[in-house]
């Protein structure tokens, strides 16, 4: 699949880091470092704008290394980039640790995964089919 991309950053286009990786690493495109204090969040630019095909979305996901080593996550994870959005991809990082974290220009801050999705139409009904789980919600499975 080919994705049209505008790269207004100082960095190369995102690449897969291994042959079977699902996500491409997104890099921060910053004029100056951004420091995130504990529980602070910031919208970090990437300098990239994409043209996602209709029937697909791009998902912005956290990087596991930043999460485990520094407590850095993404507030709205996964963030969705719709096929009709043409603006810059920005990543809403949050620092869930007790220590300040500095985001530097060119740092890999998130992953981008492109995935197919379906467009639905609602079918109003009076009842739904029965299942073993039924309406059991949070924590209801696996209990006897």
From TrEMBL:
GO biological process: dUMP biosynthetic process; dUTP catabolic process
Associated pathway: Pyrimidine metabolism; dUMP biosynthesis; dUMP from dCTP (dUTP route): step 2/2
Binding locations of substrate: 63-65, 76, 80-82
Superkingdom classification of source: Bacteria
Enzyme Commission number(s) from the entry: 3.6.1.23
Residue ranges constituting the dUTPase-like domain according to the UniProt record: 12-142
Entry-linked CDD domains: trimeric_dUTPase
Its biological purpose: This enzyme is involved in nucleotide metabolism: it produces dUMP, the immediate precursor of thymidine nucleotides and it decreases the intracellular concentration of dUTP so that uracil cannot be incorporated into DNA.
NCBIfam families in the cross-refs: dut (TIGR00576), PRK00601.1 (NF001862)
HAMAP family the record matches: dUTPase_bact (MF_00116)
Family: Belongs to the dUTPase family.
Name of this chain's protein: Deoxyuridine 5'-triphosphate nucleotidohydrolase
């Amino acid at each position: 699949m080919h994705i049209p991309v505008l790269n207004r950053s100082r960095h190369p286009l995102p690449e897969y880091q291994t042959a079977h990786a699902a996500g491409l690493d997104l890099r921060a495109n910053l004029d100056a470092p951004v420091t995130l204090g504990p529980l602070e969040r910031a919208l970090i630019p990437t300098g990239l704008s994409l043209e996602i095909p209709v029937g697909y979305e791009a998902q912005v996901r956290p990087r596991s290394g930043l999460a485990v080593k520094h407590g850095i996550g993404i507030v709205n994870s996964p963030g969705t980039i719709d096929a009709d959005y043409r603006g810059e991809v920005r990543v809403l990082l949050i620092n869930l640790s007790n220590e300040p974290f500095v985001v530097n220009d060119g740092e890999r801050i998130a992953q981008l995964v492109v995935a197919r999705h379906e467009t639905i139409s609602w079918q109003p009904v009076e009842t739904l089919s029965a299942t073993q789980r039924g309406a059991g919600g949070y924590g209801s499975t696996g209990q006897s």
